[in-house]
Structure formats: structure tokens, C-alpha cells
UniProtKB/TrEMBL annotation:
This is Protoheme IX farnesyltransferase. InterPro entries: Protohaem_IX_farnesylTrfase, UbiA_prenyltransferase, UbiA_prenylTrfase_CS, UbiA_sf. It holds the Pfam family UbiA. It is an enzyme of class 2 (transferase). Its EC number is 2.5.1.141. Its main location: membrane. The keyword Transferase applies. Converts heme B (protoheme IX) to heme O by substitution of the vinyl group on carbon 2 of heme B porphyrin ring with a hydroxyethyl farnesyl side group. The lineage of its organism: Bacteria, Pseudomonadati, Pseudomonadota, Alphaproteobacteria, Sphingomonadales. It comes from Sphingomonas edaphi. It is found in: Cell membrane. It catalyses: heme b + (2E,6E)-farnesyl diphosphate + H2O = Fe(II)-heme o + diphosphate. Keywords: Cell membrane, Heme biosynthesis, Membrane, Transferase, Transmembrane, Transmembrane helix.
Amino acid sequence: MTSLPLPATHYLPASPRDLFALTKPRVMSLVVFTGLCGLLAAPVPVHPVLGFTAVLCIALGAGAAGALNQWYEADLDAKMKRTASRPLPAGRMTRQTALHFGVGLSVFSVILMDLAANHLAAAILAISILFYVIVYTVWLKRRTAQNIVIGGAAGAFPPLIGWIAATGQISALPVLLFAIIFLWTPPHFWALSLFVRTDYANAGVPMLPVVAGITNTRRQIALYTLPMIAAAIAPWVMGLTGWIYGIASVVLNVIFLALSLAVLANKAREPKEMKPEKRLFGFSILYLFAIFGALVIDAKVLV
């Protein structure tokens, strides 16, 4: 006897691989790294077990936010080529499973952070999750082209949380680290959105290139690069870091500025011709890893 195919509405239990995919692991890697750097750059020694647990909580919180984002945006993901293969639009998981997984992971990460670190770190972690899910995903993303500008705050919390997990308090340097990521997010995502704007247009997401045009988006990338550079160099100028971070920051920001100006000068309208945009997007990821890595090296070498 041959078995009949499963009906289209039947879902097999979610696989560990698909649950992991819900956490947006590529995005999480940057979140974990900046959170770890915030913790290591803090002037307070942290027990390795507690430090590992705090960074784990940041990772779990970021993963929870990613899962809840995919739960809410399953309809949008189904309309875009680069996201159509995710577990929910591909039909490998129910939305209820994603919701339960995301909520459970959120609660667990916040409680564990509270037990391993302190109340303030746990509170900021909870705020970061709620900000990404409610403010960015539910409120901003489908309503305004400023979604990335405001929503970028969600991804800027990890170094602040890492610092607070170590010290129990907020000071000038972690606030500047928050500002660097907050101001880095628009040029980073707008560079991407320029060469995948058709996806966003098809899904009805009002990303800047879709509603304001390609030329204006290129101009905004160059404009947002300037305050980002100011925030990135400020820790050195203010005497909060040493010369290692200072030199690395200047070099990285000069390259970022040059790439953003190349984007501004580009007149191409077809994605395959947007090499400056692709170079800026690729470098922007390296930029954040490098500048936060320089921060930690500076803090540990120049003690």
C-alpha cells in the first residue's frame, strides 16, 4: 500500500534546524559580538561563567526577537525572494509554534540575565526585545520609511547590556557604543535595500528606496554616515579610549566615508550595476566587527 501525501495544512513538528533559523543566526552573530565587546571593555572584571551567561542571555534575547519578528511577518516573508524559504513562509512550522518559541525564549533570557547579572541588565534586555518586536516590527516597519532609523535602536542595545551586566550601571562610553550602532544601521540597511528594493516593493514594505527613490536614498546614506563617524571617533576624542581604538576608528571611518561617497556618486538604477552599494553593505558588517574588536584590544592592552 502506498502512503498518501500529507495535506497542505499538515505541519510536521518543527525541527531543531528550523527553530534555530527562527533566531536569525547571522544577525545574532553581530549582536553577540557587540554584546561581548561591551562586557569585555567594561572596567570591572567578570567571572567567566557569569560573563558567558550574560552573553548567552543577549544571544537568546536577540534570537527571541528574531523569532517573534518572523512570526508577525510571515506574510511579508512569503512575498520576498530572500525570505521565502524561511520556516514559516515555506510551511515547515506553524505560526503558533514560532510564537510560543519566541515568547518562551524571551522570558527565559530575561529571567536568566536577572539571576546571572543584575536587574538593570535584565530590564534593558527586556526593553530591547519589546522595542524590536512592538516598536519596529509591529508599529514602524509597515508604516513609515523611517522604520530603520528609529528601529535601529533595537540592535544598538547589546554593547550597553554587556557593559551593564559587568558594571551594574550606565556611563558615557556604553552610551556612545549604542549611538555608533544606532547611527550605523540606516546606511547599512539602506545600502542593502537599494539592490533588493524590488523585494520590499512587492511586499509593500515602505523602505526608503521604495517611497523616496534611489537618488534620495543614496543622499541619506552619505548624510547619516557623518554623525556615525562623529559618534565612532568621540570615545577617543573624549579620552574614554586609547590610541589603538583611535587609529582603528579613524581608518575604518575614512574607508566608510569613501564608500558612502561612491554610493552617492553612483547613477545606476539596476541592482546588477550597484557595485558601490554592495561594497558598502559588505564593508559595513566588517566595520562594526573591526571597530568593536579594536575597542576590546584597546581596553585590554592599555590597562
